[in-house]
């Protein structure tokens, strides 16, 4: 799959094995960043031939998705003699992608970057589109740039070693794309959700590819998020608030799935969505959400503050992407606080019953 961008076209390849990594040659001008958990699992099989002074083990937690982490890697890479001919390779999920993408963008005004997304969440969504995002002062993704990798290599066997929490987080974005596709997408994910949960390889490959193909149409038409691409933020305004409220105990994809419930409940209350459609979507979502809500203090003031701080807010009125009766999406600028609180209360009440 070729993604067209203003700065460069880049290719996404989906591999059902590790051959491309096992054959990888690391020259003296290349630096490698590897997720810590991934390194511990695959060090002997995949990473033991990388020279010790040419790789960095990165702990992928939200607290490290900061400008300080990016600058630390920049500092190390300034020791590479090649300078602008330096190359960066990164292995990991969305946090590794955000930090290393930022590094690749700002170091020498842009260096060659290859990304291996190793989580379902990164593989089905964030690996394309070119966004790099860093957290700032406890608020998510306030800093960032647009800088796509030169090449993306997805190796689906990595999904086997994901924890249930991380795997289900990835399914949150998979479900979101299918819901955005409309009736056909909802039906397809209804029919395949059990195979997805079982990590069936062929089913995962199909849904990853289809998710990327769906997103490709948006990002090529609106690369810099000024128009139709904003529709991809469906459920994210609320999802980011749940991440902030939980101090990132709730992972991104799971938070987005929760955000879908909130967004759809607001649409239902407005008479924009049929209850039967909302219930069908929720029946799928409940299968992929496992949140210990009792251990997370639900503070509605914190949630609302996070929503207002979300970068998609452009005025004092609350903005969110909602679904209309024909299941198309609309950026709505008049969402009431009462609507959000009612929908969130419904969500949390049902999570407590699970």
From TrEMBL:
Judging by the UniProt lineage, the source's domain of life is Bacteria
| InterPro entries reported for this sequence | Dehydroquinate_synthase, DHQ_synth_fam, DHQS/DOIS_N, DHQS_C, Put_AroB
All copies of the 3-dehydroquinate synthase C-terminal domain together span 170-312
Give every 3-dehydroquinate synthase N-terminal domain span. Answer: 58-168
Q: Which cofactor(s) does the record list?
A: Co(2+); NAD(+)
Q: Which Pfam families match?
A: DHQ_synthase, DHQS_C
- Which keywords appear in this protein's UniProt record, sorted alphabetically? Cobalt, Lyase, Metal-binding, NAD
Q: Quick one: a GO biological-process term for this protein? A: aromatic amino acid family biosynthetic process
This entry's Gene Ontology molecular function terms read: 3-dehydroquinate synthase activity; metal ion binding
Q: Which Gene3D superfamilies match?
A: 3.40.50.1970, Dehydroquinate synthase-like - alpha domain (1.20.1090.10)
User: Which SUPFAM superfamilies is this protein grouped with?
Assistant: Dehydroquinate synthase-like (SSF56796)
Q: Report the protein name in the record.
A: 3-dehydroquinate synthase
- Please tell me the species this chain comes from: Wujia chipingensis
Q: What is the lineage of its organism?
A: Bacteria, Bacillati, Bacillota, Clostridia, Lachnospirales
